[in-house]
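Quick one from the shared queue. A colleague (R.T.) flagged GNAT family N-acetyltransferase as missing a structural entry in our internal table.

Convert sequence to C-alpha cells.
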Amino acid sequence: MAIAIRRAKEEDAEAIGRILFEVHAVHHAIRPDLFLEGKRKYDEAEVKALINRTPVLVAEDGGEVIGYAVCYLQETKGDSMAAHKTLYLDDLCVDEKSRKQGVGRRLFAAVEALARELQCYDLTLNVWEGNDAARAFYDNLGMKPLKTYLEKVL
C-alpha cells in the first residue's frame, strides 16, 4: 500500500461521496433517530463546493481515493477570549476495506501539519457519543476533551 495524502480536487467528489455513505451508516447505527438510513452528509455538488472553499484532504492508494478529511479554519476574536485560530476537523473517514492500515493516522498527521502551517493554536473535532472506535482512534492520537456537548431528547 503506497499511500499519498494530497489536497482534494473536484474530480475526487464522487469517491469522497462513496465514503460519505460509509461514515453516515456508522452514525445511523449509533443514532437512527437523527441519521437517516441510506443517506450521506453532502451530495456531490456540495462536496465540490467544499473542495473549493475549505481544506479537504484525500488519501489515495494507486490513484484510488480511500479516505478524506474535511477541515474548517475558525478564527476567534473578541473581548472575552484570547484571539486565536483553530482548525476544526469536521470529518475524517477511511473506506472500510482500507481501515486498520495506518491511512487514518496519515490523514490525521496531514491535518495536524496543515493546522501548524496555518499557525493555529489548536485542532478540534467532535465524536458522536457511542462511536467508540473513533473516540479510541483520536485518544491514541493525543486528542483531549475540550468541552462536553449535552442533549436531552424531548
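The chain is about 35% helix and 25% strand.
The CA atoms of residues 88 and 124 lie 5 Å apart.
Added to the table.
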